[in-house]
Amino acid sequence: MWSQEENCLYGSFRFTDFSEAFAFITQVALLAEKYQHHPTIKITFNKVELWLNTHDAGDIITSKDTKLAEAISELLA
After folding, report:
1. Which of 8, 9, 42, 49 could form a disulfide linkage to 53, CB 3.0–4.6 angstroms apart?
2. Any signal peptide, and if so, which residues (predicted)?
3. CATH class belonging to 2-75
4. What secondary structure does DSSP assign to 2-71, as a single string?
């Protein structure tokens, strides 16, 4: 579900339609606020792409990223 690309954790997710993809992004936004860690998000119709890295650590992957990625993955379990 997640891969490492250019110092980021990258996830790509497909849904039935835009509404389902947007509902997922809403859940991700709530998690991001809870974890105080905010991903880069791209949504194109039914496809959502997320990039996670820690800006204040020099744009690298840290435990903040892995913890948020795990929480996001649990949304889809």
Report:
1. 8
2. none
3. alpha beta
4. EEEETTEEEEEEE-SSHHHHHHHHHHHHHHHHHHT---EEEEETTEEEEEE-BGGGTSB--HHHHHHHHH
